[in-house]
Batch of 3 targets.
Target 1
Amino acid sequence: MPILETRNLTKIYPGAEQVIALNHVNLAIEKGELVAIMGDSGSGKSTFLHMLAGVDRPTEGQVLIQDVDITSLNEKDMTVFRRRNIGLIYQSFNLIPNITVEKNILLPLLLDQRKPAQAFFEEIIQTLGIGDKLKRFPNQLSGGEQQRVAIARSLVTRPAIILADEPTGNLDRKNTEEITSLFRLVNQRFRATILLVTHDEKVALACERIMFMVDGILHEKEVS
């Protein structure tokens, strides 16, 4: 059973000239895969990611995560499901500025009134090299360090899948290479299932599978 599956996923924006942002997209991702989606601006890849995260609704079709059809969930249930099962990483990091790094990482658990597994938490922060940053605030970190914190936050709930939207978009080349290497390490060490959207071909080539979104249609490219 795939961890994530889409069935004929379609998104149409109505208007004088309707826009087909997604056109019957079918995708299956197995546990432990590291997948990249590339595409030009306006190709539909960001819309696709929003559907997978349950922050937007399709016009037609289904999104299944661990065999749960998230398109059938109401807003309240979707919020809880997302917090427990989907790790989200953004280009802009989306850290809360007035709480510490440690609390930023633990936030999904705190919102769910759950306690962290201390050994797992320690393994995450050691793997990501941020053990000495826990008492700092986000504005005291570099961009690369902030993205490491965001990756840690996405992992802490042991989600079914991690979705990353242009995760290196705000980073220089050196930090981009480091974060790309960390995605591979996280994928291998934690057997994390990761799907990322990127414009950067070097980032995509670090993944096991590369998909291209063109005019709302998803195409797969073989990775040699």
Target 2
Amino acid sequence: MNYQIVFESENILYVKLNKELINDYLVMINDPDVANKISHEIRTYTYEDELNWVTLKLKENAICFSMIEKRTGDFIGNIEIMEINNNIGELGISITPKKQNQHFGTESIKALLKYAYEKLNLDGMELNVYSTNLKAIHCYEKNGFIIDGPGKTDEDIHMINKK
């Protein structure tokens, strides 16, 4: 597959979103274990839904990357700076089920923080995570995020990371 590589870390290539990866995106986003950790409104996404999402993200020149494992060429997941307010970016990440529990989350967050601070010159990053998603919280803490209080909903906590 022909990827447009934006940056890389030890085991991961960070590439522009790619319409050829839509089937991989669908496997990830429609998996119940992934969906219930990233959305309050779980639904089944179609190929057309994902095509529209990719098209929109590319048109917006969104700071959203697909992660590809260097060793195998396998799709790992997506990582994104969803929005930037007051020079603070909001982190979003999802990892496809077969690539979870392999330390890709820790590596990719570290790499995105470096990209955000060195290339985009952001002052900090923030995120919201379900308080029940203990593995994710641990991963964020390993990358220097600290709990900053309640999140957007009663089930979320807000975490921050400063440059």
Target 3
Amino acid sequence: MLLFDPLDGSSNTDNNMPLGAIFSVLKYGRTDRSPTEADLIRPGTEQVAAGYLLYGSSTMLVYTVGQGVYGFTLDPDIGEYLLSHERMRIPEKGKVYAANEGNYNKWPDGIRKYMDSLKVTDKATGRPYSARYCGCLVADVHRLLLGGGIYLYPGEVDKPEGKLRLLYEANPLAFVIEQAGGKASTGTTRILDVEAKKLHQRVSLIIGSRLDVEQAEAYVQGKA
């Protein structure tokens, strides 16, 4: 069974900026009937494959089947995807953050304090971080997969459930990032452990390098 976001970053279309597509594959074990919508509402831990396509200066396919993360780059001359990134690993810590800071005043205190901390000058901890946000989830997460750092799209004070969709945005990207050695969290719960209740369920997403996500979790949980 396939869940997918066919055009991530659609607001970038008219501006010639990066776009993506995200997919999640689930096993369907019955033979007596076709799947229903209810069959798609499954925990992220049951994914058998996940990944994304990135449409940027080159076209890439990045995916996992639970045995590491592999990247393939499209060679337009032959019309084939060629293995270009084998067993991709995200650095444990980065120097970049990606977030829509226009929502700063809507965020919970923990998230705002964490974001403020990233801008403090402290050479020992590699701060301040650089801001890199393009409005395409796939492109922002792909940058972090290669170079490390953290992406945040938290819930807001009056919308704690967040904006991104659990089943076909957060879960597949969490599967990829975890397989590459990173983390994906709501701030309090591992994304892949979030209980799926409906097809278009929204969720807060903090994803990226392990140490960066753990630091953000500490702020969200009032431990930092």
